[in-house]
Amino acid sequence: MTHAIRVQNLNKTFGTRQVLHDLALDVAPGSMVALIGASGSGKSTLLRHLAGLATGDRQVGGEIQMLGQQMQKDGVLNRNVRRLRSDIGYIFQQFNLVGRLSVLKNVLLGRLGRMSRVRGALGMFNKEEVNNALQALERVGLLEYAYRRASTLSGGQQQRVAIARALCQKAEIILADEPIASLDPESARKVMETLADINKRDGKTVIVTLHQVDYAVRYCRHAVALKGGKKYFDGPIGGLSNDFLSDLYGSEIGTALLFGEQDVKKPEARDPARLVLAAA
Ligand SMILES: Nc1ncnc2c1ncn2[C@@H]1O[C@H](COP(=O)(O)OP(=O)(O)OP(=O)(O)O)[C@@H](O)[C@H]1O
């Protein structure tokens, strides 16, 4: 398989407003891609289309293939979308855990797309599935929390539970939509390291939308930038320059956007070009 993700001519209009324009994107298997761009540039909308959670415009919506299978074409989802979705893990900014359930049960929910609806509805997980879920929790460093209510964990821990859920799901592609936006710098670092580790050791394809470019530079090898719903950059992370970023973010540019708190105290770390060079 040449592409884990292939997008051709994707168009999306909400009401009278077109928010994605003829978007094309190829992502090689095993890539770790930062999806960047100013607020409203279409990052979340693109990710939701990749996951089959949204459809392009009727007749002119273009085509999305995931893992070599057609996910949607001209605004119509493939009829096997449930099976396709089971290969895609989706990480939300607000974790999307069921707070009243245990951490372990939340991780096991990742299996639902791969089991019969009856067994899933009854929550009948077998020993192997439970062992896999425990292994996923161990992997993200949260095994000791397995039997705690999910709502009692910190935001960063809950996000790592969400990643464990994607691991338990055995997703081949992980789409993470601003997974660190609501986290403190230390929790954000752990979440990004966990995603990078899964990419590196397991070879999973990871696409992560990020507001802070320094995290993109530190953890991703490739960047795709959107501006006004169009692809504006698609290449190695080292290709992002100061001028390009100023142009991309316009008036949004600033310390809070481009740099995590850990760098705010270090003026010498504020130059994106430096960060890019350091990561190269
Ligand atoms: N369900 C919807 N109905 C109408 N407009 C929408 C809908 N979802 C997104 N939009 C619009 O589409 C555009 C792109 O939104 P999107 O959330 O994809 O941007 P984003 O780059 O992810 O922004 P942010 O970084 O702020 O999350 C915005 O103008 C947004 O208002």
UniProtKB/TrEMBL annotation:
Q: Which Pfam families match?
A: ABC_tran (PF00005)
**Protein name, entry field:** Phosphonates import ATP-binding protein PhnC
User: Matching InterPro entries, A to Z?
Assistant: AAA+_ATPase, ABC_transporter-like_ATP-bd, ABC_transporter-like_CS, ABC_transpr_PhnC, MetN_ABC_transporter-like, P-loop_NTPase
The GO cellular component terms are: membrane
Q: Where are the transmembrane segments?
A: none
PROSITE patterns documented for this protein: ABC_TRANSPORTER_1 (PS00211), ABC_TRANSPORTER_2 (PS50893)
GO MF, one annotated term: ATP hydrolysis activity
- Broadest EC class? hydrolase
The answer on whether this UniProt entry bears the keyword Disulfide bond reads no
EC number assigned by the record = 3.6.3.28
Keywords of the record, alphabetical order, are: ATP-binding, Cell membrane, Hydrolase, Membrane, Nucleotide-binding, Translocase, Transport
Q: Which residues form the ABC transporter domain?
A: 5-253
